[in-house]
């Protein structure tokens, strides 16, 4: 579908979540034309650098994973997987972003999903 200057982008997003540690995130599955990908919007108010893993899962066990560095500054950020050709129905895709210490020395701080219904932080 064309809207104005180009193809429309459909977004299916989970809720905006906040962990007690100060991480805020919302994760979405995006579809534009014949391409699908995942994106997570975040804000890190912990005062320390973190790592994030963003995964998008599709039909037939297909998945794409992206590792993102999350800076210590309290500014909005975005992590995105590469775009892939959509296989099957766009509604069959889900995405999950997980935030933790960069060296894996601590607990999972927040998990945000494109179809989450509740907070899954610690």
What does it look like?
The chain is 0% helix and 53% strand. The chain is built from no helices and 12 strands. Strands 3, 4, 5, 6, 9 and 10 form a 6-stranded antiparallel sheet that branches. It has a 4-stranded antiparallel sheet with strand order 8-7-11-12, with no helix packed on it. A two-stranded antiparallel ribbon has the order 1-2. The radius of gyration is 15 Å and the shape is elongated. It starts with a strand and ends in a 9-residue tail after the last strand.
Q: Provide the structure class.
A: mainly beta
How many helices? The count is 0
Mean pLDDT metric: 88
Number of strands: 12
Q: Radius of gyration over alpha carbons?
A: 15 Å
Q: What is the percentage of strand-forming residues?
A: over 45%
End-to-end separation in angstroms reads: 41 Å
- How much helical structure, as a percent, in the residues? under 10%
Report the biggest beta sheet as strand number plus sense, adding barrel if it closes.
Answer: 6 strands, antiparallel
- Tell me the overall shape: elongated
Give the uncertain stretches in residue-range form: 116-122
Secondary structure elements and their pairing?
Elements: E1 2-3, E2 6-7, E3 9-13, E4 17-18, E5 23-32, E6 35-44, E7 50-57, E8 63-70, E9 76-80, E10 84-85, E11 94-100, E12 110-113
Antiparallel strand pairs: 1-2, 3-5, 4-5, 5-6, 6-9, 6-10, 7-8, 7-11, 11-12
Summarize this, please?
The chain is built from no helices and twelve strands. With 122 residues, the chain is mainly β.
């Amino acid at each position: 579908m064309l809207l104005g200057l180009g193809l429309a982008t459909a977004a299916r997003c989970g809720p905006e979540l906040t962990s007690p540690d100060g991480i805020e995130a919302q994760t979405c599955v995006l579809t534009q034309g014949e391409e699908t990908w995942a994106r997570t919007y975040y804000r890190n108010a912990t005062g320390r650098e973190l790592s994030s893993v963003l995964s998008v899962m599709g039909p037939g066990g297909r998945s794409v994973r992206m590792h993102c560095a999350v800076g210590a500054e309290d500014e909005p950020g975005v992590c995105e997987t590469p775009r892939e050709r959509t296989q099957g129905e766009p509604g069959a895709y889900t995405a999950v972003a997980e935030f933790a210490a960069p060296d894996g020395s601590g607990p999972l701080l927040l998990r945000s999903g494109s179809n989450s219904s509740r907070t899954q932080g610690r």
